[in-house]
Amino acid sequence: MVLLLAAACVALVIGSLVSDQFAEQTVAGLATGGIFGSLALALVLIYRATEVINFAQGQMAMFTTYIAWQLMQWGIGYWGAFVLTLGIAFAGGVALLAFALGAVFVRDWTFERMGIKQAGGGVIAVVIVTIGMLILLEGAAAWIWSPEIKSFPSAFPTRPIRVGGVAFSIQDLGTIGVALGSVVVLWVFFQFTKVGLAMRAAALRPFAARLVGVRVNAMLALGWGLAAVLGAIAGLMIAPTIFLQPTMMDTILIYAFAAAVLGGIESPAGAVVGGLALGVVLNLLGTYVHFVTSELRLPVALGMLLIVLLIKPTGLFGHRVVRKV
Amino acid sequence: MRQRLALAAVLAAAVAVVVLLPLAISDYRQLQAAGVATFFVAIVGLNILTGYTGQISLGHGAFMAIGGYTTAILTHDHGWNLFATIPVATVIAFVAGALVGLPATRLSGAYLALATFAVALVVPALVRKFDHFTGGNSGILIPFHSGHWLYVVSWTTAAIFLVLAWLILRGRLGRSFRAVRDSDVAAVSSGINPTLTKTLAFAISAAFAGAAGSLFVLSAAYAQPDEFGLLLSIRLLIGAAVGGLGSLWGVVVGAVFVQMLPVWAQGISKQAPAVIQGLAVILVMFLLPTGFAGLLRRVVAPLSNRIRNAS
Fold first, then answer.
1. Could you tell me if residue A137 is inside a domain?
2. Has residue A217 been placed in a domain?
3. Which residues constitute the domain of residue A235?
4. Å from A133 to nearest chain B CA?
5. Mutation for testing the A interface, residue in B122, B181, B236, B242 having most A CBs under 10 Å
6. Comparing C-alpha atoms, which of A20, A1, A25, A45 is closest to residue A233?
7. What tens digit of pLDDT does each residue of B95-139 get?
8. Which pLDDT tens digit goes with each residue over B44-53?
């Protein structure tokens, strides 16, 4: 797998050296791929922490982007709004899980008091709840801020810089930088801090983690908070290109899903690599294969996903779960 | 014996309500009720797959699209009788379901959810791409019918498919579905081929969705790719979960929920139907994680026990 990736990278570099257009399209693909990757990583974080496929992840990102827009309307500068929004997103993610856990506790306690036997609905009930959240957030954003398209400022200048004959857009490079930067920061956090270790323990072996004194629920809430922050970054980075509207993240979320599954839903590195690969391949296909028109982009991406899944049913970086019967 | 009688009484009452309802409500309401029947057929189908066989599908809207477009193309381009198209749509959707189901048996859990999610998105995109055959974005118009006509056709079809589902689920095939759901390994050791069983479940459930798609297009008098988008697949899954997985009783409630909720939400507030729908979905799943059928099981079973003990 690593060899295959290395070969793909070499091919991209050679292609970029040979053709200017190829280089431009590769960088643009990496930029959108970085967005897919961040959101995919958010999905993976939540999946690893709570085994929930969060269908509302894109809408959470969209909502926080609207909050950033609102802050800027109130006269706060771009970076001020950026930092504030990330803070709000984090608090929102933590509060969401805390609220859900609290609500479930109260429900079970009340039902027990009333003598009603409560059977869990399993995964499907949770999936439906996140779908409900998706509908709710999209409706709420349209209600509060109107469904009209709004323009959103970019952190980076829109003019290109030239390297040799190649024109790179600074915005693309900035997006790649921010997306990959946040991934590296997260990696350092998980690998080298005590809280990061505790979070990994809580996700991997909740009961054992609790025995050695990890506050598992707090760690899960932290995971949701971090995922919300990643989503917010993705939203803030993509909004200048695709504009601000309640449905802006719908297709992005689908690509993020594809990226997460491509890499293996349990693998953070897989999500990022999957996102980047998807972004580059889609962009190159759109440029060089004329059959792939804009309405076929999504089917092609999902077709690739299906093929990968059929060959490796747990994604590129996923491991087979072997269980005793 | 007594339980059988009670069951028969409930069933007779349900049939009476469905038959007599058109006398009481307007033509427009009958059109909406026909929509309930449409969702009923599709959700019964999804329930066979998700509830009884344990395979999640987020892509059943795609099979509805296949059924719906079969009806639209056959009536519009080839002058077929409307009724004759429903069985054809069912068969074509069955084949499509088997084609999707066979590879899908390799996947499970999150991966299956996302693969079927992909199917839900790909089919409308293909409809747009091959527009000389499907009419593309402008869609295909078919003759318009009154609400009453649609009510009769839809509920008759729903009744036929309910009986079909009941026959399938009570027999050998239904037992092997449940065996696969409860434990793959145990199913194999009792001589069941899980790949074949899951593929069949997929195909049968897609066939139901195909018939529902036919009814869907008949009601709208129109086939258009946007109508079969992701939202439709999501609504089917919501309906199945609200009704209660693994039970045919709850499906009516699930179908009424997904068909009527947008209408009611519109009535409560002009501005925020989506907010109300989202809240309703979250609340229902929070209070009834096993759906309406679970509630029935919890409330009715203890009640009937109490009555039996008292007498």
1. yes
2. yes
3. 29-311
4. 6
5. B122
6. A45
7. 999 988 888 877 777 778 878 888 888 888 888 877 777 777 777
8. 999 888 888 8
